[in-house]
Protein: Protein kinase domain-containing protein
Organism: Vittaforma corneae
Amino acid sequence: MVSKHQSQTSVGSLLKANPLFQDVMEPSMVKLLAKALDDINSITAVGSDLGVVIEKLSILTKLFDQIDIRDHKYKNEMLIFLNSEYGLKDMKIEDLRWFYVFKITHGANSYILKQIGHSIGGGYNSRDLLAEYVNSPNVIEILHVFERHVQLKAGEDEDMYTWYLTEYLDVGLDSEYVKQGGIDMIRKVGRDVLNGLKALHDRIITHRDIKADHVRGVWKTKEDGSRELIFKLIDVGIAQYHMTDESLYWGITSDFSELGVCLNI
């Protein structure tokens, strides 16, 4: 059986032999993918799990930028290969939304990897990083930011791409556990979201898109060993930093109005 850890030559051979890639993978693409896999799989698990994940994703996101993964014709086939026995070692990557939001699983831990576009695509999700300025247990935590300048194709202007890594929150408001929680659960969600909004508003930031999909929960273990479900605001891609009191007032009013609608669903 072929070892999962492959040299660049053997990984390239596997790619070329794979029916999915025989007619579509140009030599330069094979070389980039093989080099990235070799570098990622050579990283040993020394130190924290998060540190290892960041080191591996630094290489993987660079590859994704080089090949323009969102628009690559064979992105699905490439993802299948990355998750095969010949691909990523000790890591799985799952596309959650149009190849710019991924779930990363490394050992027993899961994370969310998300791409921000700056000039391309009208600056999609460009304000997500405002969450970096907010320190609250009820606002999504950004664990690391990968940023680089890239020129994707000959003749195109250089653009800046950013990927960032966050914690993975596995409890949605549509989960059976939350639905069956009754009025106490509604109070819990409302209290946690209000705490998150206060942290944003204290930084003169409003969320502007409060809805069920943008509130998720995660179980946390407390010092006494018991577990507590914590809800957090996520997806601040259209959040706004306010320059005037009047603008902030109307932004806060809108956030509270949207929260009321969310809790009434």
